[in-house]
Amino acid sequence: MGRGWIAAVFAACAAFAFFAWVQLGRPVAIPDAPTAHAACVSYAPFQGSETPFNESFVVPKERVLSDLQALATFTDCVRTYATTNGLDQVPEAAQKVGLKVLQGIWIGRKDSDNIREMARGVALARQFPDTITGVIVGNEALLRREITADRLAVLIQQVKGQISQPVTYADVWEFWEQNPSLAQAVDFITIHLLPYWEDQPTPVDEAIAHVVATHQHMEQVFPGKKLLIGEIGWPSAGRQRQGAEATLVNETRFIRGVIAAAAEHQWDYNLIESFDQPWKRALEGTAGGYWGLFTDDREPKVTLQGPLAEEAGWMRWAGLAAALGIGLGGLAASSGRRADLVGWGVSLLGGLASGGALSFLALHIEQSSRQPWEWGLNGAIWCLMALTSVIILRVLCQQTIHREDAALLGWLRRLALIVASVGVIGHVFGGRYRDFPSSMIVIAAVGFLLLRLRTDHDGVSRRPEDSWLAGAIVLGAPVVAISEGWLNGDALTWCALVLSLGLVALPWPWQGGGYGGSSFSR
Q1: CA–CA dist 232, 386 (Å, integer)
Q2: What span, in angstroms and rounded, lies between the C-alpha atoms of 265 and 200?
Q3: What's the pLDDT at 339?
Q4: Residue 136: helix, strand or coil by DSSP?
Q5: What is the pLDDT of residues 29-65, one digit of tens each?
Q6: What is the rounded radius of gyration, in angstroms, for the C-alpha atoms of the chain?
Q7: What is the predicted pLDDT for the residue at 344?
Q8: Alpha carbon of 467 to those of 73, 423, 442, 475, 499: distances in Å?
Q9: pLDDT at residue 521 in the model
Q10: What angle do CA 451, 456, 462 make, to 5 degrees?
Q11: Whole-angstrom Cα distance, residue 276 to residue 260?
Q12: φ, ψ at 432 (rounded to 5°)
């Protein structure tokens, strides 16, 4: 492949990257919600590294009041899940700002903990009878297999006997179908409808119809029993699940659609959730932390009227891409050996393409990283891809390829193979919550492919372990693609890139070069 063709490939990649940023910044028309108020919203107060698993953490009283004041402009009610971590302060604060409360009582494996939690929940219900309108004993405890339906029914009856408010239990709708006898223990049935997380995910364009059909189905399964949709929502970031894409536009479209459907069908519903919860990323991947109607920093995220852009700050990211592109391309050309005019073109166009990829990778790192080790690991991968870009462009922009670059390229490709193989193996053995960050591998995949096509030998130093890593990728990537399905464009793109990297790292029988060595000049 001549350098002119390589320049054309880079030009197309750069144009695609910048076009993608422009598209993300374009306002999208979305049907307005029929009202500017939601019926009820789940409330969890945690920010940053805070987590409910830290039993010593107590949310400041001032934050609870401030949060509920902000939510009072959006909803008439909040749902809580427990009384721990300072959540017992919610009813008093809600009373001050005029909100109603669906009080949660957390039920888990340990019966002694359950009894204590129930006592606190009962005390709150008695203390705030006008503010707490209902009590939810347990949240997805059957889904987590932490308690039996029979024991749960006993606990529900114990709570019912001590308070005047109606009592319910909340779980994914399929688990109510599997445990219909539990309906006799509750005053109303609380179901969770989350089309994104279901075993057969539903694309956002079909999600409202799916919700309507499921609600009607549950009305038929439990005739005469009042239904509350206890959780319904959509994530604004994270991995794609079949045809269900986690984007801000899709979250907004779904939330507005839910409010419209609820008004039409007279549903009782509760949106999940008020604020993005970073701690959930540890359990549910990137998507778990982005179900909020507000950001973690308490900034409005989902609007109920008007057009919306996926990335309002797209110009900042596009500017970063351009700056990186010029810097990387100039560095690659100037560090080489007297690159000619065509070489400078290859280097600068390649730099712009790499800058686009690195800007998208930076956005992914910002969304997915929470703990210091995550920032460190992802930052190291970002630096690896930047260095890989410079070295590959330095080689591609020259008419001859020099032997001393072979060892460095070998190590860079080896590290990229490790990143790709870890991702593939992770997806094969447990990929439900793993992302498909194509931006993390595209520079290595495209760059090393162009090197391989550059001449009859790419000059990259090889070791036997490269074939083992590449073999794992080549065997695993098709498995991932098949399991994710043809609707998952993110998964298919990622699989194609890692597969390309794996194939390029294997010896091609019609080209020269085995392990070690190089046919390039010094």
Answers
A1: 40
A2: 24
A3: 64
A4: strand
A5: 999 999 989 999 999 999 999 999 999 999 999 999 9
A6: 27
A7: 83
A8: 59, 17, 20, 12, 13
A9: 39
A10: 65
A11: 23
A12: -55, -40
pLDDT digits (tens, 9 = 90+) for 348-376: 999 999 999 999 999 999 999 988 999 99
Residue 515 confidence (pLDDT) above 70 = no
Structure token pair of residue 328? 């990387």
Whole-angstrom distance, CA of residue 353 vs CA of residue 346: 10
- Longest alpha-carbon distance in the chain: 86
Tell me the pLDDT band of 509, cut-offs 50, 70 and 90. Answer: low
Contact present, 431 and 479 (Cβ < 8 Å): no
Contact 143, 174 (CB under 8 A): no
Residue 221 in contact with residue 177, Cβ under 8 Å? yes
Tokens of 196: 């994104």
- Residue among 472, 418, 407, 475 nearest 441 (CA): 418
In which band, very low, low, confident or very high, does the pLDDT at 511 lie, cut at 50, 70 and 90? low
Question: 419, 381 in Cβ contact below 8 A?
Answer: yes
Q: Are 298 and 278 in contact (CB under 8 A)?
A: no
CB-based contact 57:279 (threshold 8 Å) = no
Q: Mind giving me the DSSP string for 437-494?
A: -GGGTHHHHHHHHHHHHHSS-------HHHHHHHHHHHHHHHHHHHHH-TT-HHHHHH
- Residue 455 is predicted with a pLDDT of 63
Residue 513, CA distances (Å) to 51, 212, 357, 388, 499 in order: 53, 61, 30, 21, 20
Task: Report the half-sphere exposure of 131 (CA within 13 A, side-chain side).
Answer: 22
Q: Where are the alpha helices (DSSP H) in 369-463?
A: 372-396, 404-430, 442-454
CB burial readout 256-267, b (16+ within 10 A) else e: bbbbbbbeeeeb
Tokens of 66: 């401030």
Residue 112 amino acid letter? S
Cα separation, 325 vs 483, whole angstroms: 36
Q: In angstroms, rounded to a whole number, what is the distance separating the alpha carbons of residues 368 and 356? A: 19
Nearest to 16 by CA among 329, 308, 354, 346: 354
Read off the tokens for 19.
């076009």
Please report the pLDDT score of residue 519 as a whole number: 39
How much is the pLDDT for 93?
98
Q: In 3-state terms, what secondary structure has residue 16?
A: helix
Sign of CA dihedral 458, 462, 465, 468: positive
- The pLDDT, as a whole number, for residue 452 is 86
Percent over 90 (pLDDT), the chain? 84
How large is the average pLDDT for residues 511-520? 44
Side-chain-facing half-sphere of 384: CA atoms under 13 Å: 23
Q: DSSP states of 265-295 as a string?
A: HT-EEEES-SB--GGGHHHHHHHHT---SB-
The token pair that represents 37 in the structure block? 């108020």
pLDDT at 513 over 60: no
pLDDT digits (tens, 9 = 90+) for 170-181: 999 999 999 999
The length of the chain is 522
